[in-house]
Amino acid sequence: MFIIALIISIIIGYIFKGRLKNLINVEMNYLYLVFAAFMIEAITIFCIRKGLLQRGTITFVLDLCMYILIFLFGYFNRKNPFIVIMCFGFLLNAIPIFLNGGAMPVGVKTIDTVGLTHNIDREGLYRLVDSNTKLWFLGDVIPFKFITNLAISIGDIVAAIGLMLFVIMGMKKTKS
């Protein structure tokens, strides 16, 4: 979803006469924290899909490390309101993940709507919503069928809006 948001924001940025090269003028600190966080997530999901890891203490700690890195990045860049919006979206994702044992709740009706498998445990750090799920409405319960089929959350939407505003406004920014 974030790749789609990024592409759309670049298109909108160009419509508003922005330039991609202007993003270099946006002050941003410790970007490597975001890359490290997403590498942790990508490696964890890869290992789960290959059967090398199962959701449990190790994946919970890896998820915790990932979110700590993201929130540190947000803290170090708290002067940029669009990064704050992105981090708020990630916080909205972190809450149900950690209240549900380190797995994002995914709605059964949502995965049926977008045509995903019910064997969601093998896809990554997910669990199907059931009667024990805490704050299920913050989970991946929104079907998203645009270019690809995804189950997304309110947090994903907020983070994507923050990303889009960051890119669009950054494309308009010139050297100060």
From TrEMBL:
User: Which Pfam family, any one of them, does this sequence belong to?
Assistant: DUF5317
Q: Which UniProt keywords apply?
A: Membrane, Transmembrane, Transmembrane helix
Which residue ranges run through the membrane? 30-48, 60-76, 82-99, 146-171
Q: Could you tell me what this protein is called?
A: DUF5317 domain-containing protein
Report the source organism. Clostridium omnivorum
Lineage, top ranks = Bacteria, Bacillati, Bacillota, Clostridia, Eubacteriales
